[in-house]
């Protein structure tokens, strides 16, 4: 008889652990209030171009394309802020990196001497993927330093890194410095879809947003997402259970940065103009506001938050020039009294099913 | 030789200004566990109050005193109305609420004083420069700022280490829950400390107002720099903030000076302090001057 001296392998969550989520045992067909709200929201986004064309308000299509791009960035932040408990105050930096990547590729392709390769990389789809990769690579470095710290230090360090990148791009003469870059974004994609049509570009953006939403939805129910939420709620316990928590946080941080970079890439194609202001620290703050306004740790909350915040930002100045004087205190009141956000205030469980525990409830 | 001395004084002046701002931030964080982003707004208010009073009274010292008193009042009101509800909350909530306050204050000063920048003249007595040993000269007003910075640092040390109030502050910072049992009213103490932090921010704002243009959002960049000081020095430690502020002042000055001399791009100047932070955190995640 041989004595087993090896320690028993750490019991990991079963691969199909999502099947044992509380609530599913009492499965009833139907959607939770949050689910219904999400569906209605998405249906409205799908119908928006048709309705606005019918009403002759074509500018709404461009307006909401921009909103959806920021919604994508907010979605990426929610992944680490809402599910990972990492209060990153520098998400705008990744957004900006993606935007600059696309801008550089477009500028490179427009040079007279540029060849086939440059034209290939300026293709919208290729340039967006490059944007995501560029942001992810920088995020690897930032995460390696930042994730050593916790709590308030983490907030400050991510802010400091973002601010550093902001100054780097202000100092970059080839990026136009303070004035930024204006370029003509290539609009014909490899797949044969022309983005010069405003409505087509709208649906491409919506498609990417839906894809990211679906990814988030799957991810938070997968083993990875459950571990991530475990880390958010009690990192020490997760480590004691044998999870290499740093690896999970690192992966989530880089993934979120890639998504933010993708959003930035879309933004550059959408605007055909970028400047360092999109990386300013207040932009990172605004992304946090969107996430919290919509509902941190809810799958579709950030989209709702982005729509509400950017619509207010667009229309309040028409009412009063000094809208920030009103918005600031409203934000304070939201933090004090409406912590769960718009989506989070709706029940997240189906009627009749037992409620699952919600940290932010 | 004179140039080196002059730049050293520049670094000292920057470092001490940063310390005065960071000291308020770190006191509030150390005692209430509160990250107050609106600390930069208090600095800005100090500068605006000083500029407004100066335009009205034409007396610099009076304006500085008035600005400090006014800002301390605003700080105490802010603590009483809003921030004390956030002490027990997540840091993220504190960041969000104080971010809202920044939006409010930045727009408020634009409403009251307009979008353009205000300027204050350096008081007549301090115009001119002082000759330095070894050649070169230094702005007299900046020299006074350095002296004021050292005096404030000494006063703060005396307050925290040698007075009864300082004893309570240190006690609350290390054992908050025990203090009410000892008969100390922690909520009054919090308000006092917050007003003290606001007053420190106002001192920095009012005294540096003649050097910079007074405008909306002027505190934001300084807030981030003083947060760097906190992270480098170790959050919650006044001594750490002092040493880190001087270090940041020196590194920032070298970063601005060196690229021009050796022909490197100027943007290194803005980035040097951040590189310092990354270097420090890679080796000591809790900051340089923490005991552990």
Layout of helices and strands:
The complex is a heterodimer of chains A (361) and B (292).
Chain A: H1 33-54, H2 59-81, H3 91-110, H4 116-122, H5 124-146, H6 151-171, E1 181-182, H7 198-221, H8 223-233, H9 235-240, H10 245-271, E2 273-274, H11 281-294, H12 301-319, H13 323-337, H14 341-344
Antiparallel strand pairs in A: 1-2
Helix pairs in contact in A: 1-2, 1-7, 2-7, 2-10, 2-11, 2-12, 3-4, 3-5, 3-6, 3-10, 5-10, 7-8, 8-10, 11-12
Chain B: H1 2-32, H2 39-57, H3 60-81, H4 91-113, E1 129-131, E2 137-139, H5 140-162, H6 164-174, H7 186-208, H8 218-233, H9 238-262, H10 268-283
Antiparallel strand pairs in B: 1-2
Helix pairs in contact in B: 1-5, 1-7, 1-8, 1-9, 2-3, 2-4, 2-7, 2-8, 3-7, 5-6, 8-9, 8-10, 9-10
Could you characterize what this model shows?
The complex is a heterodimer of chains A (361) and B (292). Chain A has 361 residues and is mainly α. Chain A has a domain at 62-280. Chain A has helices at 33-54, 59-81, 91-110, 116-122, 124-146, 151-171, 198-221, 223-233, 235-240, 245-271, 281-294, 301-319, 323-337, 341-344, and strands at residues 181-182, 273-274. Chain A has a two-stranded antiparallel ribbon with strand order 1-2. Chain A is globular, with a radius of gyration of 22 Å. The N and C termini of chain A lie far apart (54 Å). Mean pLDDT of chain A is 85; it is low at 23-27 and 357-361. The longest helix of chain B is centred in the first third of the chain and has 31 residues, at 2-32. The N and C termini of chain B lie far apart (40 Å). The mean pLDDT of chain B is 86. Chain B has one domain (2-216). Chain B is built from ten helices and two strands, in the order ααααββαααααα. Chain B has a two-stranded antiparallel sheet. In chain B, 72% of the residues lie in helices and 2% in strands. Chain B has helices at residues 2-32, 39-57, 60-81, 91-113, 140-162, 164-174, 186-208, 218-233, 238-262, 268-283, and strands at 129-131, 137-139. Chain B is mostly helical. Chain B is globular, with a radius of gyration of 19 Å. The A-B interface holds A 81, 87, 89, 145, 148-149, 151-153, 155-157, 159-161, 163-164, 167-168, 170-172, 281-282, 285, 288-289, 292, 322-325, 327-332, 335-336, 339 and B 29, 35, 82, 85-86, 91-93, 95-97, 99-108, 110-111, 220, 224, 227-228, 230-231, 235, 265-268, 270-271, 274-275, 277-278, 281-282, 285-286.
